UniProtKB/TrEMBL annotation:
GO molecular function, one term: DNA binding
Lineage per the UniProt record: Bacteria, Bacillati, Bacillota, Clostridia, Lachnospirales
Domain called HTH dtxR-type: residue spans: 3-55
Protein's gene: mntR_1
Full protein name: Transcriptional regulator MntR
InterPro entries with a match to the protein in the record: DtxR_MntR_Metal-Reg (IPR050536), HTH_DTXR (IPR022687), WH-like_DNA-bd_sf (IPR036388), WH_DNA-bd_sf (IPR036390)
Length: 83
């Protein structure tokens, strides 16, 4: 599955929030990105269908191995360009 820029932003946000909070819910992503919770739900479902994230029974988002690799690559790229 090909990711669009917005999908990359969601993956990067989940990575950053996991490092900061440990566990990430859709509402955390919505607050961090300044978007609506329904927008996050659509993005999360798309990322889930693509195999980039999983959701546990408590509705916490977790990056899959593939999702983590993509998110870390995006995060490193953004860090490089902001320095």
């Amino acid at each position: 599955m090909k990711l669009h820029a917005s999908g990359e932003d969601y993956l990067e946000t989940i990575l950053v929030l996991q490092k900061k909070l440990g566990m990430v819910r859709s509402v955390d992503v919505a607050r961090h990105m300044g978007v609506s919770k329904p927008s996050v739900c659509v993005a999360v479902n798309t990322l889930k269908d693509g195999g980039f994230i999983t959701m546990d029974e408590d509705h916490f988002s977790h990056l899959s191995n593939v999702g983590r690799k993509v998110a870390e690559k995006i995060y490193e790229r953004h860090c490089f360009f902001t320095e």
